[in-house]
Amino acid sequence: MPGNDTRAATRAIDIHAHWYPAQWISLFEKDGPKEGARLERTPKGYTIRTERITNAFTEEFVDLELRLAGMRRQGVDVHALSLTTPMVYWASPGLGLALSQAYNDAAAAAHARHPQSFVGLAMLPMQAPDRALAELERCAKLPGMRGVYIATNINGADLDERQFWDVYAKAEELGWPVFLHPVDTIGRDRTTRYYLRNLLGNPYDTGVAAAHLIFGGVMDEFPRLEVNLPHAGGTFPGLIGRLDHGTRVRPELKHMKRLPSEYLRRFSYDTIGHDDRINLNLVRLVGADRVLLGSDYCFDMGLTDPCATVARLDALTGAERDLIRGGTAARLLGL
């Protein structure tokens, strides 16, 4: 089977796997137009539009049986299900909460139906932090929910803003990792052509988010908070030397007591580097125990054979590849 590793005892856990539940789609289709959003059903699937964001996806993003078949093809045992673009921040607080609840309830139901295959990453209406906190507390009681999914910025507000800290505190208390993902990315005006909003916007926005979490004190205030950076960490690992140098010489960073490189292992990362050299360098920089299997399922910018991406890293030991394949994810997600 494609993607199978010879060390089959370790379950393959994909922590970057997107899902649009039918219940969420129905609510979006019904109430989204009242707030300037719409869903179009096309021969290829769906196109979803808000004022600033458009995304297209196929039925494989919706139907769990199609997903299970895809997982079997890839040799993946578990998906940590996450909503993706446009998430819910474009909506009013009330609709954002309703959409979040629809997603979270559906994810818990998916876990109940297939407990060995699916866990959920909670969607929260971060545009209304008080409602986000209440929804996080509710989600903690739902079966199969194992973490939080948050964009790399919230309608332009960076993640070190104090309004979000109560959510981080509750996630830390729960022992739930926070998984980040770009939605509305930096450099919007200059990345409209050539699909650059994804190719460059996504990794750069992730790097900006990581820098705010470090320089803004979030990672110090919440020392047990686990934060996962998508797309192999975006620009953050590759620019760590520049961030360190700036911290040493710039007055804007004189408040820093530690260099950014000392935070590299505070984050975890996925394997969506699209180059074995990038992934191997990432492992050497942060350690195999901080890198998790991810596919971006099932977008064309993702990995069609995520397990093979790990198996090809033959410079690593079998034990290191096992950690990446699923060992560390099992620990972080409490599986």
Structure write-up:
The chain has 335 residues and is an alpha/beta fold. The chain has a single domain (76-332), classed as Alpha-Beta Barrel (TIM Barrel). The protein has helices at 22-31, 64-74, 93-113, 129-139, 165-174, 196-199, 201-215, 218-221, 240-249, 276-286, 306-311, 318-332; strands at residues 13-18, 38-42, 45-49, 54-57, 78-82, 118-123, 145-151, 178-181, 227-229, 267-270, 291-292. Strands 1-5-6-7-8-9-10-11 form an eight-stranded parallel β-sheet. The chain has a three-stranded antiparallel β-sheet with strand order 2-3-4, with helices on one face. Helix 3 (93-113) runs parallel beside helix 4 (129-139). The two termini are 24 Å apart.
Summarize the structure.
By secondary structure, the chain is α/β, with parallel strands linked by helices.
What is the beta-strand fraction? 15-25%
**What is the helix/strand order?**
EHEEEHEHEHEHEHHHEHEHEHH
Low-confidence stretches: 1-8
Determine the CATH topology.
TIM Barrel
Mean model confidence by pLDDT? 96
Number of helices: 12
- Order of strands, main sheet, comes to 1-5-6-7-8-9-10-11
User: Total number of β-strand segments?
Assistant: 11
What is the CATH superfamily classification?
A: Metal-dependent hydrolases
- First and last CA, distance: 24 Å
